[in-house]
Write a structure and sequence with these properties.
With 363 residues, the protein is an alpha+beta fold. Helices cover 55% and strands 9% of the residues. The chain has twelve helices and six strands.
């Protein structure tokens, strides 16, 4: 029977010292030796046929390393049974002492799921922001931008329906696309018309204008909803009390960094070039982000605790239904593994909890 000593430290760090009698470890040792012996080839013996004592001597410290790699997690799980400790990161193992035939003693350092206290979330008061009106100028700007790009893509030639610009620049009544610029026709700048609108998939220019307005209004409504949700989450963060584990803060900082890398890549830059342009190092950037990262983690933990108190859950059928919506086969295959499924289940649970809060707030 193993013995354990559990010491709880600040920031949700827990050190677990585990002592394992040789009798509890011997089976793991023998099984590991037999498995590794199958790939050992010694002089005078076929591969996998050498006597186990000779193989054991030949493997040396490699055998012990493999035994401990298999033993550490199993004995840590056994040591944590019956406790309130739930690890949220991978343990760090340190060997204290071990000799074959004698007891094993090791220390595992883990981060425990922190205790979270959320205030009276049912009393949250947030006013839904007024949706932003779409102006005629905004609609016209989209049309003008679409028209500009459309005109540049149009072929130039006698069969294109657009007159070619002659070599003589003095001739009027033609359009030159040599530098993506439009030249006046009969003294007037060309403007979007029904031909352009039909090329954009509309019936005519008025129909295109209506479609664009509808899209802009839908986008404004979407952003308005995001602002409303963000206001609720900020209230959750303010009323959540928790001692934040460093590992969660670092995870959030890394997530923010990945998001920045994607935005920088969309601009055609490398992160190193972006940082150089900002005159900052990666560590300086993370230092500036730390306060926001802490708020994000606090909000995430608060929302998860509300989910626990409200018994919000995602069934296996609901999880699979969400996975079935994925069209990309390569992405879909990733959810055959357990860890991505756990992350998706958590994200769906958080979303459902936020929807519940929105109903409580009255939005």
């Amino acid at each position: 029977m193993i013995s354990k000593n559990i010491q709880k430290l600040p920031k949700s760090i827990v050190e677990v010292t585990v002592t394992v009698p040789w009798a509890d470890l011997q089976q793991t040792w023998d099984q590991t030796l037999q498995k590794m012996a199958q790939d050992v080839e010694l002089p005078g013996f076929r591969k996998g046929a050498a006597p186990l004592p000779m193989v054991e001597q030949n493997l040396g410290i490699k055998l012990q390393d493999e035994v401990l790699k298999a033993a550490y997690p199993n004995f840590l799980i056994e040591a944590l049974k019956g406790t309130d400790i739930i690890p949220i990161d991978y343990p760090k193992y340190d060997l204290i002492s071990f000799v074959k035939g004698q007891q094993l003693q090791f220390k595992a350092t883990i981060t425990n799921r922190p205790a979270v206290s959320v205030g009276n979330y049912k009393a949250i008061k947030v006013t839904r922001p007024t949706p932003k009106s779409v102006t005629e100028e905004e609609v016209q700007k989209v049309i003008d931008d679409l028209y500009k790009r459309w005109k540049v893509r149009q072929p130039v030639g006698k069969d294109s329906g657009v007159a070619s610009a002659p070599q003589n620049d003095k001739v009027t009544g033609s359009i030159s696309f040599q530098q993506g610029q439009q030249t006046p026709t009969n003294g007037q700048a060309q403007v979007p018309d029904d031909v352009f609108a039909k090329a954009m998939g509309a019936l005519d220019l008025n129909d295109l204008r209506a479609k664009i307005r509808k899209d802009l209004e839908a986008n404004a409504s979407y952003n308005n909803e995001l602002d409303y949700e963000e206001a609720i989450l900020q209230e959750v963060e303010k009323m959540t009390q928790v001692e934040l584990p460093e590992v969660l803060i670092q995870d959030e900082l890394n997530r923010m960094l990945v998001s920045l890398q994607r935005r920088v890549a969309d601009m055609g830059l490398l992160l190193e070039d972006y940082l150089r342009g900002q005159g900052k190092t990666l560590e300086q950037l993370k230092s500036e982000w730390r306060v926001q990262a802490e708020k994000n983690v606090r909000m995430e933990l608060g929302l998860a605790d509300i989910a626990r108190m409200e018994n919000v859950s995602i069934t296996d059928q609901e999880l699979q239904a969400e996975i079935d919506k994925i069209q990309d086969a390569r992405v879909k295959r990733q959810f055959e593994a357990q860890e991505p499924r756990l992350h998706l289940r958590h994200a769906l649970r958080q979303t459902r909890t936020l929807d519940l809060l929105k109903k409580m707030v009255g939005g």
